[in-house]
Amino acid sequence: MGDERVRYAKSVDPVRTDGRNVDESVGVLSGEASHQRVRHGDAHLKDVARKWEHVPSSGGADVTYYDRPMLKQSVWSIDIPLYYFLGGAAGAALTLGAALQLVTPREDRSTRKLSAVCHWTGITGSTIGAGFLIHDLGRPARFLYMMRVFRPTSPMNMGVWILSGAAPTAITTGLLLNREGVLGTIGEVAGYLSGLFGAALATYTGVLVSNTAIPIWQAARRWMPVLFAASGAATAGSVIDVFVPSSSCRTTQVFGTAGRLVEIVAAKQVELAANEIPKVGEPFRRSAPGLLWKAATALTAASLVATMMPGKTPSRMKTAGLLGIAGSLCLRLAVHYLGNVSARDPLASFHQQRGTH
């Protein structure tokens, strides 16, 4: 300790210090994060902790905190919008499968087969989507850690419980549905439960996104769950049309068409709600994710037109399905990246709080 200095040398209790004043007996790194190393730096800090090119001005009508963003942008990777996409499609498919169970007698084998296809679509989507979610968490154990509490006021915590309920009930339904005896009854009950979990799975991510301080989504909080549910329905119908064309019928086509129509309407309402305060809705007009949002609407509209045209040939329905899948995927990516653009804008939060028009 060559830099050691003595304070209060003439007192009865002199203090020896190296200037840091750190008690090394307690200043020890420990715990889960103590051995972690940052490989590529913090992307958020690269955007926020920039050096000043000029001294920020405190004058004018648009006063901010030294021109710095008031909010942190999301640290989620692309895994999360992919989870939105797959989880929404899975939830909508499970809901449709349960509805078909409810209105179809067991003797109607063709419709019952379609119900099973919906459940297996839900199983596949929820399983792959859960993989993306766990990968974003970094360690699988962190998914289990979130189940230590049950907090209805937290959409994220509720999402963990919803996903944990949807996957097992859907798998049970897929294995036992349409069987005879007790096993068939278990599959029937599990199918109804998976439908309930599926409806929540298709919508809770919309609640999660809008239940934040991010200006662009907080402004559209009443329409985001509707948008996510409609997008999930459009995706589920499109996936069945493309990948299981032998099971596709008027029921799935109507389901997917309704989802596409409501998705277009809800997307427009989200824009209108955000644009009530121009600065909040600016990312829709002046950003790359805004172009992605417009592309999503265009693809979904093209899918809707292809679906409603007369003469529904298998190739045309497959094309409509591919357009619908592409539109929903672009929508989920746009949701994620538009939120980041909005969080980085110092003026958006201040204008929203002040009600500036």
SSE ordering: EEHHHHHHHHHHHHH
Label the overall shape: flat
Q: In angstroms, what is the radius of gyration? A: 26 Å
Number of strands: 2
Question: What is the highest CATH level, the class?
Answer: Mainly Alpha
Report on the biggest sheet.
2 strands, antiparallel
* pLDDT averaged residue by residue: 84
SS strand fraction: under 5%
- Helical stretch tally: 13
CATH architecture: Up-down Bundle
CATH superfamily: Formate dehydrogenase/DMSO reductase domain
| Uncertain parts | none
- The figure for the number of domains is 1
Structural class: mainly alpha
Q: Which strand order do you get reading across the main beta sheet? A: 1-2
CATH topology: Formate dehydrogenase/DMSO reductase fold
The rounded distance between the terminal residues' Cα atoms is 60 Å
Topology:
Layout: E1 5-7, E2 15-17, H1 43-48, H2 79-103, H3 109-137, H4 140-145, H5 155-176, H6 181-210, H7 215-218, H8 224-243, H9 250-274, H10 278-285, H11 288-308, H12 314-344, H13 346-354
Helix pairs in contact: 2-3, 2-6, 2-8, 2-12, 3-5, 5-6, 6-8, 8-9, 8-12, 9-10, 9-11, 11-12
